[in-house]
Amino acid sequence: MPSRNVLQVILPPDVMATVARLAKLQSRSRSAVARDFLVEVAPILARVATTLEAAKAMDATGRARLVANLEAVQDSLEHQARQLTLKLDRATRTAKRPGSGSRRRAERAAPRPRRTVLPPNH
């Protein structure tokens, strides 16, 4: 019998509404949706914990450098996330247009030309 590690959390209403929507769309329980999400982000949470442990062991100068590096990474990730969100929004709008679904499927089915990347000096 699997171990029972139970975690009860109180979610803000907007987060709970999103989890409920996903659960309904997937015919799953809200708990299963939340569990799968946490399992997927567990490696990221572990990295955050490791980083916080390392920061705790650093002196003030080391922490300042770490903060500066992490802020630069965060800026980059936020930019990438915004770009991905825009692409998803565009794809959703395109998919909602009448007749767009069959054209998109045909485009995906067609083989794409391969790009050959040559190493420098060629």
Describe this entry's structure for a reader.
The protein is mostly helical and 122 residues long. Among the domains are: 10-57, no CATH class; 59-93. Helix content is 73%, strand content 0%. It contains four helices and no strands. The protein has helices at residues 13-26, 30-57, 60-96, 100-109. Helix 1 crosses helix 2. The mean pLDDT is 84.
Secondary structure layout:
Elements: H1 13-26, H2 30-57, H3 60-96, H4 100-109
Helix pairs in contact: 1-2
Task: Using brief descriptors, characterize the structure shown.
122 residues, mainly alpha, 4 helices, flat
Describe what is shown at a glance:
This protein is 73% helix and 0% strand. It has helices at residues 13-26, 30-57, 60-96, 100-109.
- Largest β sheet strand count, sense and barrel closure: none
The assigned structural class equals mainly alpha
> What is the global morphology?
flat
Helix content: over 70%
Q: Give the C-alpha Rg.
A: 22 Å
What sequence of helices (H) and strands (E) makes up the elements? HHHH
